[in-house]
Design a protein that fits this description.
Distance between the termini: 36 Å
Number of helices: 24
Helix content: 40-55%
Structural class: alpha+beta
Strand content: 5-15%
Largest sheet: 5 strands, mixed
Bound molecules: zinc ion
Shape: globular
Number of strands: 15
Length: 674
């Protein structure tokens, strides 16, 4: 089969070649606070047939896990999504009427967030249409199209999911991080059921052996629940929880293993298959160790239960996937960084007891993403550093990537949107941003991922989970500060990574402006900051502001009633970054929970309501969407008459609605409840 080469996205695709930046239409859709973008996959056509085939199979495996994340985010998400999709596809009433448009927007928001809670604020969305309208549309369609449970009527389905959608007191928050309450009982996600925070903490504390220097990631791939008064783990595996999706993931992984680039990669995929079959966390560690050591294969991937941001206890991992291949040209930049990793570690401002004597295997590369899935879709990270287990990182190092084709899409849509004109103090900052920001953003991500997360060490006997709910914020701050501190080091110019000693100022200004002010565009009025990366950025920026106040290192200045961030002394900013890095590393290395909590609660969480109001008003006038999500390209196998695979083509024409409906049609095998 050959995919159509006719484009409908506002550009013409010429044969198999990747469309140029100028010809590419990055923006796909816009609704609520979201803009959906496309990304290019440059040089896909230059890969070997085997590599393309491998990307095809891994891409299928990436989409198969989509439903798992919906269910992890809230146990009613699949029922709700399926009901909304059934209405969207089958409703015969007035589709131009306002409430139907509102229902469509709500469905798009559910797709964007993989559930009913905002992907960033984690608050439940408020639908603009009424419960009565919802009931009316659901009842108007053929009940056979609805996700009813056995013997259930449409009315019963409505009664089951309506309160979850409409009642603001039901599941208000996906992951609760507020200090002083039971974080499990107050979180809407589906990692625990019927257990309190205390019960969960005791359950896992009992499993841990403090003398084990190579502990498994306890609780990573399971739901903890009470069955007949007894607390048990329900494990995600083939034959266990999520078997309908995981068995299909395994099926595609088997095909991928058959076209692996080399034996090492085949072995990695087979170990992952074995983990999916057994759910054995020792096998997971084996897989991570093999995966982190594969530096030669051009095609690479993440597929499985990976990041623990969504669990307030930081144990359980959400399902995600990224399929990618190395961007050979841009990787030269990160190779310079990683080959100097020991120099960076030795010269950091951190106490020498908390430094690594020998930095192991910090491997860094720039990648081109070919497919996003699970917790990386539609909103996606721009850098990744894995694996997460501390002892594996210490012993085998970590693999760090910067995703350049995603940042390309961000940069392209940000050009000329008026944001810098509104919020930057003067042309000096704007010109620096124009000249250097693309480069310094990527470089900061490189430093954050390949040096920051990999730097430092825990003192012997420190429990890696001791910072609990504050760990994500502290860890991100540590990585950001490591990068920021070195951005201003003349060493980077010497290494050829920055063109001049001016360039770092572009990053410093943007970072402080964002952390002190403009990231508030992502927060609803009256709310505090919840998300770990945002908390980390405000923590750093506000700490530098407060601690440099006496010298006016950084100031707020008001002009024509508008507030601006002004940086008076960039070198002093750098010194302050270094001081905070030393303190944050101390907190991490010694497991100082109180120290971490104090920093986060003092600088990272609370928002200045007046400034917040002003920023939102100025931002609203620009008519921009604060959040971006992505659609994936579509890959098609091209076969000859005998069914032999001849090529894999990529097309960029699918829109957000069609893509999500197709994924729900073809890759949705989980029951409504799991
Ligand atoms: Zn990070």
């Amino acid at each position: 089969m050959i995919s159509s080469l006719v484009a409908c996205g506002g550009y013409k695709q010429k044969g198999n070649a990747t469309p140029s930046v100028e010809d590419f239409n990055y923006s796909v859709d816009k609704f609520a606070d979201v803009e959906i973008l496309r990304y290019r996959v440059p040089d896909f056509e230059k890969l070997s047939l085997k590599q393309k085939e491998m990307i095809y199979y891994l891409s299928q495996a990436a989409i198969e896990g989509r439903d798992i994340l919906y269910d992890q985010n809230n146990k009613h998400n699949l029922s709700i999504r399926r009901t909304l999709e059934a209405v969207y596809e089958n409703y015969k009433g007035d589709r131009n009427a306002e409430p139907f448009q509102q229902l469509t927007t709500y469905l798009k928001r559910v797709w964007m967030a993989n559930g009913i809670h905002h992907h960033y604020s984690e608050d439940k969305f408020t639908p603009a249409f009424s419960a009565a309208y919802f009931a009316e549309t659901v009842k108007s369609i053929d009940p056979a199209k609805l996700p009813v449970q056995q013997g259930e009527t449409a009315d019963q389905l409505i009664a089951r999911i309506s309160p979850v959608i409409f009642d603001p007191t039901v599941y208000p928050k996906r992951t609760n991080q507020a200090d002083g309450v039971d974080l499990i009982l107050t979180s809407a996600n589906n990692y625990y059921e019927g257990v309190t925070q205390k019960e969960a903490e005791d359950f896992y504390a009992k499993m841990k052996n403090p003398n084990d220097s190579t502990p498994i990631s306890y609780g990573l791939n399971s739901k903890l629940m009470k069955v007949n008064g007894k607390i048990v783990e329900k494990t995600y595996k083939v034959g266990g929880m999520y078997t309908e999706a995981l068995s299909r993931v395994v099926g595609w992984l088997e095909k991928a293993a058959a076209v692996a680039e080399n034996d090492q990669q085949r072995d990695i995929i087979n170990t992952l298959i074995s983990f999916n079959r057994t759910g054995d966390l020792k096998t997971f560690d084996e897989y991570c160790i093999k995966w982190v050591q594969d530096l030669t294969s051009q095609v690479d991937f993440v597929n499985g239960f990976t990041e623990n941001y969504a669990d307030p206890l930081g144990l359980k991992a959400s399902w995600e996937s990224i399929v990618n291949f190395k961007n050979v040209e841009a990787t030269k930049r990160t190779e310079i960084i990683s080959s100097n990793a020991q120099w960076f570690e030795d010269n950091s401002p951190v106490d020498k007891n908390f430094k690594k004597e020998k930095v192991k295997g910090v491997s860094a590369k720039v990648i081109t993403v070919a497919m996003l899935g699970g917790d990386c879709y539609p909103p996606t990270p721009i850098g990744i550093n894995l694996p997460n287990a501390n002892w594996i990182r210490a012993e085998y190092g970590s693999k760090s990537v910067t995703i350049e084709n995603i940042t390309e899409a961000y940069d392209q849509v940000a050009m000329g949107n008026g944001f810098n004109e509104e919020f930057m103090w003067s042309d000096e900052e704007r010109n620096r941003a124009k000249e250097y920001a693309s480069l310094t953003n990527n470089l900061h991500t490189d430093l954050h991922e390949c040096l920051g997360h990999g730097s430092g060490k825990l003192l012997p006997g420190t429990d890696p989970n001791s910072l609990k709910a504050y760990d994500s914020t502290i860890e991100e701050a540590r990585a950001d500060l490591f990068g920021l501190y070195y951005m201003g080091d003349p060493k980077l110019v010497e290494l050829g990574l920055l063109p001049s000693n001016e360039a770092f100022k572009a990053e410093y200004y943007q970072f402080l402006m964002n952390g002190m002010m403009t990231q508030l565009t992502r927060i609803k009025p009256g709310k505090n900051i919840e998300e770990a990366h945002m908390r980390n950025r405000q923590l750093i920026a506000n700490w530098v502001y407060e601690n440099g106040k006496a010298d006016k290192v950084v100031e707020f200045r008001v002009r024509d009633g508008k507030t601006f961030v002004v940086v008076n002394d960039y070198n002093k900013v750098r010194t302050l970054f270094g001081k905070l890095l030393a303190e944050i590393q101390r907190i991490k290395s010694t497991g100082d929970f109180n120290g971490g909590r104090d920093l986060v609660e003092k600088y990272a969480v609370k928002v200045n309501p007046d400034l917040h109001k002003e920023v939102l008003a100025r931002y609203e006038k620009l008519n921009l969407a604060p959040y971006k999500g992505f659609v994936n390209p579509v890959y098609t196998l091209v076969t000859d008459k005998k069914g032999k695979i001849k090529d894999v083509t990529v097309s960029y024409t699918e829109n957000f609605v069609d893509q999500n409906l197709r994924y729900s049609r073809e890759y949705s095998k989980l029951p409504n409840y799991n």
